[in-house]
């Protein structure tokens, strides 16, 4: 079947073509319909496609280039940055809410299926337990849940900016208010504790700590105090805080001053921010991540120019790999500081993506495609840090030094070993196939739409045509539930990037069509069957991976704590285990079935302390 299809039909049929749209001159991509949501291929391609769309069809009205905004760290300078975004929505609540009554878990839902058809969460592999001290929790990210976008001295971030550009967020929602976790965190932490899970992985907003981002700019004490209380609240409720320094929300000022992560200047600014945060919360946080999913972030860096410009020497084609280089140096510098400052605890970054399987078994080109996918998706950051101190050979063979700056011996020494554990946001595992024109032809043609990774993700079995698993919401067409491949994936992560322990740092599912339901349909929203099945099947496989395969997994984090701003899908793609009623003045949260299932699963599989 494969060989009979034309290139374009094949690309249309196959999932996950890694378009590097920025490789293509604007004039050749002017078929706007191909840029609209139906042509999306993955979460990062979504963002790329849509931001590309604004760049060429809805150019921002401000005409500022990188370097054109002066470094004015006064209140007037801050206002000028906010003017780039325009008016933002004011939240309905403007102070921290202290819950008046303790949160208790409502009565659980009835069994989903008759017992002859499916077991309840408590009956899934009941003899297998998580290791002692296992972190079992929920995950969130500052931009996606906090809201209060302009409050208490915060500066704007690139995502605050992007969310206000027409066409970026499909449903035109912004994250200006969203869940208002910034003021409602006490209730949110109490609700996590009520579920009986024991941790929360969240991120700090760099622009709340340094509104102007830069190392010579003033720190915002309100931001420092805020997260101090957020962390203290977690500890008070026995919910372990796991902290990410950077979840894609670059202070807009740094993009304006020098082009953000496309510039070497970012390295020292990030390290300074990291040191400030380490110092402020040392002793209260044990597990730290420098960066969330750097590969996904850098794949999009070329489409977050400051208006239409990037720093000198960088263009939208090579920006991704310049970003990779500076980000890796920023990570290594932050970890070096962490160790030199004797910060207590452990630190690494969060990888994403998967090690796939050859679509056509024993086909050497597809076997190579698997390697290319793993190298471009995970190895790009994980090889230098965990194994070789250098970029994967596949990247060096494909990308000339003007695309991918080479790591010097000194760089390698600084980078290798800068992780205490391996963390992976592993949502799914698919097959990989070679491009229809062959890998060599693709690698030698930088205008091939699949270049430079030159592999195709396939979400259905070559032999049978059956999907790898049930589909999620149409807005997240990159995601199918694939529990049956979890164990083999974890074996591959551990074999390729060995570390003393692994955190399963994010996994989750967008229940189809949840985003189109109204608050009156709450009883249907809370019945999130596909999400519940996703979590229960993944967690069963995870237990087998730990107990049968010996994988040293010491934590698992469900994405997400509640519905939130899902990047360019806005409020329309829902990942929450709690529903948020965006029409209610208190932004009321309601547990969905999946929250109860996670709670039950953890209670049943928790290792009880053994009395001596
Ligand atoms: C992850 C990302 C999260 C969230 C999630 C669901 O890749 O870290 O911020 O968006 O995907 O799409």
Fold and architecture overview:
With 612 residues, the chain is α/β, with parallel strands linked by helices. It has one domain (67-356, 408-427, 471-605): TIM Barrel (Alpha-Beta Barrel), CATH 3.20.20. The chain contains 20 helices and 13 strands. The chain has helices spanning 7-13, 43-57, 75-83, 142-145, 158-162, 181-195, 206-209, 221-236, 252-258, 266-281, 294-299, 319-340, 364-387, 393-398, 409-415, 439-443, 486-496, 522-525, 529-547, 593-605, and strands at 135-139, 199-203, 240-246, 287-292, 346-352, 357-358, 422-425, 431-433, 456-458, 502-507, 553-559, 578-580, 589-591. The protein has an 8-stranded parallel β-barrel, surrounded by 5 helices. A 3-stranded mixed beta sheet has the order 6-8-9. A hairpin with an 8-residue loop joins β12 and β13. α17 packs across α19 (529-547). The radius of gyration is 23 Å and the shape is globular. The termini are far apart. Residues 1-59 have low confidence and may be disordered. Bound molecules: beta-D-galactopyranose. Beta-D-galactopyranose binds at residues 43, 141, 144, 292-293, 296, 352, 425, 506, 559, 566-567, 575.
């Amino acid at each position: 079947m494969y060989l009979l299809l034309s290139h374009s039909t094949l690309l249309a049929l196959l999932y996950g073509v890694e378009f590097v749209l920025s490789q293509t001159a604007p004039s050749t991509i002017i078929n706007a319909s191909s840029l609209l949501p139906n042509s999306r291929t993955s979460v990062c391609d979504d963002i790329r496609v849509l931001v590309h769309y604004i760049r060429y069809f809805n150019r921002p009205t401000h005409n500022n280039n990188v370097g054109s905004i002066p470094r004015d760290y006064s209140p007037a300078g801050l206002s000028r940055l906010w003017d780039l975004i325009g008016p933002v929505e004011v939240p309905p609540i403007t102070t921290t809410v202290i819950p008046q009554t303790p949160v208790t878990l409502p009565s659980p839902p009835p069994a989903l299926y008759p017992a002859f058809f499916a077991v309840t969460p408590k009956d899934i592999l009941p003899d297998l337990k998580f290791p002692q001290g296992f972190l079992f929790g929920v995950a969130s990210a500052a931009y996606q849940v906090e809201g209060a976008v302009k409050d208490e001295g915060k500066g704007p971030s690139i995502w605050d900016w992007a969310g206000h550009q027409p066409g970026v967020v499909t449903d035109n929602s912004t994250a200006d208010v969203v869940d208002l976790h910034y003021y409602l965190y006490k209730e949110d932490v109490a609700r996590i504790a009520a579920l009986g899970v024991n941790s929360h992985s969240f991120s700090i907003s760099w622009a709340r700590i340094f509104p102007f981002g830069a190392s010579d700019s003033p720190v915002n004490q309100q931001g420092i105090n805020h997260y101090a209380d957020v962390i203290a609240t977690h500890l008070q409720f026995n919910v372990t805080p796991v902290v990410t320094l950077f979840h894609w929300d670059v202070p807009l000022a740094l993009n304006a001053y020098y082009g953000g992560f496309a510039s070497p200047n970012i390295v020292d600014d990030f390290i300074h921010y990291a040191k400030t945060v380490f110092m402020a919360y040392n002793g209260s946080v044990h597990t730290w991540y420098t960066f969330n999913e750097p590969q996904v972030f850098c794949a999009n860096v070329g489409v977050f120019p400051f208006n239409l410009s990037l720093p000198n020497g960088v263009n939208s084609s090579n920006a991704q790999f310049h970003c990779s280089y500076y980000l890796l140096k920023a990570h290594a510098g932050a970890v070096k500081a962490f160790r030199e400052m004797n910060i207590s605890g452990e630190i690494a970054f969060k990888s994403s993506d998967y090690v796939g399987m050859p679509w056509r078994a024993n086909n050497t080109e597809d076997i190579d495609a698997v390697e290319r996918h793993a190298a471009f998706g995970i190895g790009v950051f994980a090889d230098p840090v965990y194994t070789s101190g250098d970029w994967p050979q596949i990247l060096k063979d494909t990308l000339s030094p003007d695309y991918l700056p080479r790591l010097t011996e000194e760089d390698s020494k600084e980078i290798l070993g800068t992780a205490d554990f391996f963390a992976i946001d592993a949502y799914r595992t698919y097959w990989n196939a070679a491009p229809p024109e062959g890998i060599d032809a693709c690698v030698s043609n930088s205008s091939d739409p699949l270049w430079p990774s030159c592999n195709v993700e396939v979400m259905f079995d070559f032999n049978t045509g059956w999907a790898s698993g049930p589909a999620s919401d149409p807005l997240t067409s990159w995601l199918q539930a694939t529990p049956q491949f979890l164990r083999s994936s974890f074996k591959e992560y551990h074999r390729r990037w060995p570390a003393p322990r692994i955190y399963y740092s994010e996994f989750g599912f967008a229940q189809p069509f949840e985003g189109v339901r109204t608050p009156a349909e709450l009883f249907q929203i809370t019945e999130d069957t596909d999400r519940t099945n996703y979590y229960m099947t993944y967690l069963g496989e995870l237990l087998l991976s730990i107990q049968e395969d010996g994988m040293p997994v010491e934590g698992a984090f469900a994405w997400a704590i509640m519905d939130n701003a899902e990047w360019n899908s806005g409020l329309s793609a829902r990942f929450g285990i709690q529903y948020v009623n965006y029409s209610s003045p208190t932004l009321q949260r309601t547990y969905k079935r999946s929250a109860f299932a996670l709670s039950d699963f953890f209670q049943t599989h928790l290792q009880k302390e053994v009395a001596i």
